[in-house]
Write a structure and sequence with these properties.
- By secondary structure, the protein is an alpha+beta fold.
- Helices cover about 45% and strands about 25% of the residues.
- The protein is built from three helices and five strands.
- The strands form two sheets. A three-stranded antiparallel beta sheet has the order 1-4-5.
């Protein structure tokens, strides 16, 4: 008889735990449909990582765009190149992320709200604001041919 009572008690306990987990999972799905999450943790990471990643990203963009520009340079120009490209020292911000849970198992559907205002100084420390770099893109066109050519930077 003691065995039956123990089995009955653990079975009810298991049912209770599983039911509670199922209910919580459904409540989270309902909340995901109506609310968006803040992304402060990833913004904190982005602010620190941006100082390292932005120069690498800029150089990659310059290299990629230069290849395309060299192919499509008009015949009346000697050369066309992207000489300077920077997105600035302020990182993009992820304002919110919203996940849609009612999708097929092999799909993930999310709605990301992203803001990039590189000249806004309202949330930067004064020390960082003093050393800030604004976004800049300079395209250099070389007019003429050979010895008579002259570079013209376009900001």
């Amino acid at each position: 008889m003691a065995f039956c009572a123990t089995y009955y008690t653990t079975s009810i306990g298991r049912v209770r735990v599983r039911s509670r987990d199922d209910i919580q999972r459904e409540l989270v799905k309902t909340r995901l449909l109506s609310e968006s999450e803040s992304a402060d943790w990833i913004n904190n990471f982005m602010e620190r990582f941006w100082k390292i990643y932005e120069p690498v990203l800029s150089q990659t963009i310059i290299a990629s765009v230069d290849q395309i520009l060299s192919i499509y340079t008009p015949p009346f120009l000697e050369s066309l190149s992207l000489t300077t490209f920077t997105l600035g020292t302020k990182a993009p911000r992820i304002e919110s992320v919203r996940t849609f849970p009612n999708t097929p198992d092999d799909e993930v559907l999310m709605d990301w709200e992203i803001a990039f205002t590189p000249t806004d100084l309202s949330d930067i420390l004064p020390k960082l604001a003093k050393n800030k770099t604004n976004p800049k893109i300079i395209l250099t066109i070389r007019l003429g041919k050979g010895f008579i050519s002259a570079p013209m930077p376009i900001l």
